[in-house]
Each structure stands twice: as C-alpha cells, then as structure tokens.
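Exercise 7.
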Amino acid sequence: MSGKVIILMMDSFGIGGAPDASAFADTGANTFAHIVQKQGGLEIPNMVSLGLQTAALEASGEIVSLNSKTPPALNIGHKFGHAKEISKGKDTTSGHWEMAGTPVLSDWGYFKPDYPSFPPELTEEICRKGKLTGILGNKAASGTAIIEELGEEHIKTGKPIFYTSADSVLQIACHENHFGLDNLYKLCDIAFAAVKPYNIARVIARPFIGEHRGEFARTKNRHDYSVTPPRTTVLNKAAQAGHEVISIGKIRDIYAGSGITQAYKAGGLEELWDVTLEQVRKAPDNALIFTNFVDFDMVYGHRRDVNGYARGLEYFDRRLPELLPLLSDDDLVFITADHGCDPTYAGTDHTREQVPVLMFGKKVTSQNIGQRQTYADIAQTICAFWNLAPMEYGESFL
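Solution. The predicted structure, written as tokens, is:
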C-alpha cells in the first residue's frame, strides 16, 4: 500500500474498564463516561459515528448517554474497538511506546511523592553541575499549582522549581525570561544525565511566563528529555523502509527522536489541528503523521477541569470532518489514547484505563473489532498495511 497513516493521539482519553485498574488504585475510573455524566451530555457526533460509544460500553460496561442533537458530518468506513495496556505503568512513555509496538514490561524508577521527593545526592549533583545555589519544590505536585505557589520565589532567588508526579519523571519549571529558556534546557540536559542510574523515563523542561501569582502561564516551549525506546518501534521500521515519519507536538520528545524524520512543534488544540491538516496536505503518499493532542491531559485531565475537557472533546470532534477532503483512497486514520486521566477522580494523576481504537478510511470495511489485548495492535496493523516486517507484540486488525 502507498497510503498515508495518520494517528490522532488524544492524550489521556481513557474509556474505563482496565482489568488491572485495582492494582493502580484506579478502580472505577472512566474519563469518558464521567465527563459525560458531569456535563449531562456531549456533542461529539463524529466520533460516535466511528463507533466510540459502543467501544466505550464494551470496554467498561457503562452506558454513556450523550444526549447529542447534532448529526455527524462523517460517513466513512470504520473499525472500532478498545485496547487494554500490558505495559507496567500508566505513564505517557509506556502508552506511546506500546502503541508503537514496544510495550514497557519492566518497572520504571519513580521518585517518592512526599517532600523531599528527590534523593539529596541527586539534587546536589545537579546543583553542582548546573552552578545552582539550591532548588525549590522537591515534591510531587500539579505543574500549574506549584508554579503558582513558588513562581515569585523562583524569580526572586533564581532557584529552579523541581517536582515529580506518579509518572517516572523529574520536571523542572523555570521562568522563560528571568531564568532563560536556553539555561533551562541546559539544566535539563544535566538532570537527564544525572537521573539515568535511577531508571527515570523523562526529564521535562516546563518554561513559564508572568510576573506575579495569578499571572503565571506555561508556554509551548516545553521539551521532554526521554529515554530512547530499547527495541525497534513501528516508527523505526517505517523510517528504515523510506517512509516519512512526521511528528507533531510532543511525539518527537516521547520517542527521543528515534524513527522521526520530520518534527513540528505546536501547542493548543487549534494549532495542533492546523499543523496536522497542513502536514496531511503536504506529506507524500506513504507518510506516517503522528500528533499528540496534549491539552486533554496537561490542561484538562491533570487540572481536573471537567468542563474544559468536555469543550476540548467537542472541539476535536468538530474538526474531524476537515480531514475527509484531504484523504486519498488508501489513507488510514487512527484515533486512540495512551492512558486515562479521569478529571472526576481523586488526585491529579493518570488513571489506568482502556483506550479507544478507532480506524477509518475510504476503503475500510466497517467492523466492530472488539477487545484488543494490547495497544501494540495499532503498530501491528500499520506493519500489515505497509507490508513491513511484523512487530513482536500485537495483532493486526486490518
């Protein structure tokens, strides 16, 4: 086949029903159902026409009553199902790597949630190499909350804000102007080298602007320093076979650039959609275009903003039909997620859930593909579509 493959990755859009949710203290979490229940409905007719509502019911057993009044603008062949995760974590890295065919079957290292989160020898090494007088934070926190709490002190003292979460991550927040973006990136380089003995998946640079509490805002110049996937992903296979692999948003960072041939930054749902559509127009016939719609996780899920998440879902759905005139007869589009982040659940962390697996295209025969045993089924389907050597994990539903 010479068609394009487009992956629309709705970061954190879980649909409940993970069989091992209790092991993560996430029993009953259901990002999709609980948003709809709190809102009393949701206008997402296009994703419903692709089978989302049925997939969600079959994943979790919960009936999601959308009360939608808007007819769908999509009328296209599609397959729909739901996938459980076999990776050991419910973090961004594990979810993305698994859907690319390489589940994370060993445990990441994690920092403890209470103060001080980071071992003193680690922070001492980073401070010494980064010529810092000290750090702020040193605990698990919501990124926006800790910037509000410590942003003014950071500007006054020049000390960076270090924090973690339930993910395998060290995050460093610094003011884009007062501390300097380049200085933040250099500091994260130092930190990334320093955390290697701790088996940490990512160090994340979190630049922000604003001068006073209530004015601070994170910018789109976030940069993730990620461990490289230990095995070949479908991105690597595609690139090695001569396909353009185009990342939009934070995809490049999550895979540490491995298998990526072009990368485009974008922030916010509108810009992410705009850049995605532009690349679909421009990309050659056999390109893989992979977009992470991070706002669902970063802006709405972690902040427990149910209304914002709902409005984001409706916006995403409204823009889906813009893809149709850009698709050739052989193109495939996938809609999926990497984990859950139920905005009605306790705490501010990800939730262990199944994810939707929706695929559509002009030559796709409509089918309920039911329960998928791993996110890696997506990678295996892409391999089958392009006649690439199969992945070790996953089963094609082409």
